[in-house]
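Tutorial handout. Part one gives the primary structure; part two gives the three-dimensional structure as tokens.
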Amino acid sequence: MVKTKNFSLSEWDFFEIIATNRLKKFWWLYLISFILGFSHLNSFGDDRFSTAIVVFGLTFPPLIFLYLLFWVKSSKNASLFHEMSMTFSEEKISLSMSNGNYSEVPWDQILAIKKRRNYWLFYISNNQFLFLKKEAFDSKEDLQKFELLTTEKFTKS
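Part two.
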């Protein structure tokens, strides 16, 4: 069994995660949008179609990410940023939140584990994940135990 220190997901980390995921999924859409916008830039203002294409093509991607930023800061997401600790056992992942909530997730409910530079994401659905900071471990030994446990339980990444 491995237990973490208390840690929390920051708004910026959450924004980075969802923005990166969105960019990986829809990079082609944002690229097409910019290409269309830039390709009609010479005729901007000459006709309504070109003007609309430029305005839409060059503002659509930034507006999407601005929307995501405001969504992250929404009061509906406030519970995501509470301090928490996690315990990893052979059977499950246990989460204890500073607001008193407690959850258990059996390993077989984890669809994927994504290892990033400073954290891990444990996906329990396509759009839901558990967040774990790498710095949440008390020692290198705990980190090694955790990595061994996740490798044994789940080899996808």
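Part three, for discussion. Residues 11-77 form one domain. DSSP finds three helices and seven strands in the chain.
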